[in-house]
């Protein structure tokens, strides 16, 4: 299993088509892992690109970490990962919270990012998005799993529920994720967003609660295009082939 | 590392045993002991494997069989319903036929 040391921490990565000239780096969302891309989206992109996926800290099979869930730390992690893999510049795609990391990366390290795909990035000032963390409980998890998880639509059995419960308990009550997320609430209102000059594809579910955020971003970023995709926040699971083909075309042209 | 690229063709029972070994390594012995793993066991419902565990499982197949078997490619050709209904017997057949 490919686990590499980045800044002295274990990071689980998956790579496809290593020999390709250009790299697409993919960032998953919060409480998810790289499997959101691994089975459908990544193999399609790998027909033309070197594809790199990684598990964010404390997610999937990457090492647990108590601190550093703000966007500066998350992009420092990504920058260090790129250095560890000798990647000078990449096409970047991020889903949900990973979309915010992708945006921040393009703002902080513009030389390292070619084109940008932002899928269903939420507005962190949205009370509902942050409310998830305040309201966490076992009942909440059961509800959340039924409605919002982006890794699988399968109903969880006892073992999975326990596994997820442990992950949420750890993230919510032991790490700084809560305060780090609250500290980012004004990220999309920062003036620097309007200065972003990367070609950006915004993919949002036509029925998603986040679609408004997509529209706002499309107004702020002069070099962006917004494409609604049939579905809600879970479009990478609902329409993986469509999403992969759209990303492919965008990065190829 | 389990990189034993087998030159002789494995029969279905041998593949089944190998798959059971991989599943045990991925989800842990304490859970496997409580389960009756059979070729009819479904990955998501019976074995309760989530997608990141199936990634680990796929990696083990890749490490063992190498380029002989494009397991991830095979999985990626399935839609969500097919993945949900995937059982061990289907994987055994796929590997058996690829050899």
What's a quick, concise take on this entry?
The complex is a heterodimer of chains A (253) and B (99). Chain A has 253 residues and is α/β, with parallel strands linked by helices.
How would you describe this structure to a colleague?
Chain A: Residues 23-145 form the AB hydrolase-1 domain. The complex is a heterodimer of chains A (253) and B (99). Chain A is α/β, with parallel strands linked by helices and 253 residues long. Chain A has a single domain, classed as 3-Layer(aba) Sandwich (Rossmann fold), CATH 3.40.50.1820. Chain A has helices at 35-38, 41-45, 71-84, 97-108, 127-134, 138-147, 158-173, 177-182, 211-220, 235-238, 240-252; strands at residues 3-6, 9-16, 23-27, 50-54, 90-95, 113-119, 200-205, 224-229. Chain A has an 8-stranded mixed sheet, sandwiched between helices. In chain A, strand 7 (200-205), helix 9 (211-220) and strand 8 form a beta-alpha-beta unit. Chain A is globular, with a radius of gyration of 17 Å. Chain A starts with a strand and ends with a helix. By secondary structure, chain B is mainly α. Chain B has one domain: Non-ribosomal Peptide Synthetase Peptidyl Carrier Protein, Chain A (Orthogonal Bundle). Chain A binds chain B through residues 1-2, 14, 33-36, 38-40, 43-44, 55, 60-61, 151-154, 156-160, 163, 237, and chain B through 27, 31, 44-45, 48, 50-52, 54-56, 59, 72-73, 75-76, 80, 83-84.
User: What is the CATH class name of chain B?
Assistant: Mainly Alpha
Largest sheet entry of chain B: none
How is the CATH topology of chain B named?
Non-ribosomal Peptide Synthetase Peptidyl Carrier Protein, Chain A
Taking all Cα atoms into account, the compactness measure Rg of chain B is 13 Å
> Biggest chain pair contact, residues each?
A-B, 26 and 19 residues
Please tell me the total number of domains of chain A: 1
Structural class of chain A: alpha/beta
Question: Over the alpha carbons, how many angstroms does the gyration radius of chain A reach?
Answer: 17 Å
Task: Report the order of strands and helices of chain B.
Answer: HHHHHH
Class from helix and strand fractions of chain B: mainly alpha
């Amino acid at each position: 299993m490919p686990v590499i040391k980045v800044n002295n921490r274990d990071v689980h990565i998956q790579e496809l088509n290593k020999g390709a000239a250009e790299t697409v780096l993919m960032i998953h969302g919060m409480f998810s892992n790289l499997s959101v891309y691994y089975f459908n989206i990544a193999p399609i992109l790998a027909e033309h690109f070197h594809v790199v996926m990684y598990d964010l800290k404390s997610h999937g099979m990457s090492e647990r970490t108590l601190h550093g869930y703000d966007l500066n730390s998350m992009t420092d992690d990504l920058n260090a990962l790129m250095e560890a893999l000798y990647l000078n510049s990449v096409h970047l795609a991020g889903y949900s919270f990973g979309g915010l990391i992708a945006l921040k990366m393009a703002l902080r390290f513009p030389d390292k990012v070619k084109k940008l795909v932002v899928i269903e990035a939420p507005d962190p000032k949205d009370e509902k998005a942050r409310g998830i963390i305040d309201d966490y409980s076992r009942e909440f998890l059961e509800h959340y799993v039924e409605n919002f998880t982006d890794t699988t639509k399968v109903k969880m059995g006892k073992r999975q529920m326990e596994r997820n419960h442990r992950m949420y308990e750890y993230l919510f009550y032991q790490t700084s994720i809560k305060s780090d997320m609250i500290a980012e609430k004004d990220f999309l209102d920062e003036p620097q967003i309007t200065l972003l000059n990367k070609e950006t594809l915004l993919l949002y579910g036509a029925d998603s609660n986040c679609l408004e955020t997509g529209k706002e971003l499309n107004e702020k970023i002069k070099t962006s295009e917004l494409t609604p995709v049939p579905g809600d926040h879970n479009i990478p699971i609902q329409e993986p082939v469509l999403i992969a083909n759209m990303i492919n075309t965008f990065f190829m042209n | 590392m389990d990189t034993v690229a087998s030159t002789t063709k494995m029969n279905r029972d041998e593949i089944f045993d190998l798959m059971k070994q991989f599943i045990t390594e991925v989800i842990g012995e304490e859970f496997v002991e409580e389960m009756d793993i059979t070729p009819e066991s479904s990955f998501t419902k019976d074995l309760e494997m989530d997608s990141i565990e199936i990634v680990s499982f796929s990696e083990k197949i890749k490490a063992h069989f190498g380029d002989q078997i494009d397991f991830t490619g095979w999985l990626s050709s399935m839609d969500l319903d097919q993945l949900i209904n995937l059982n061990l017997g289907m994987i055994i057949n796929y590997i058996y036929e690829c050899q």
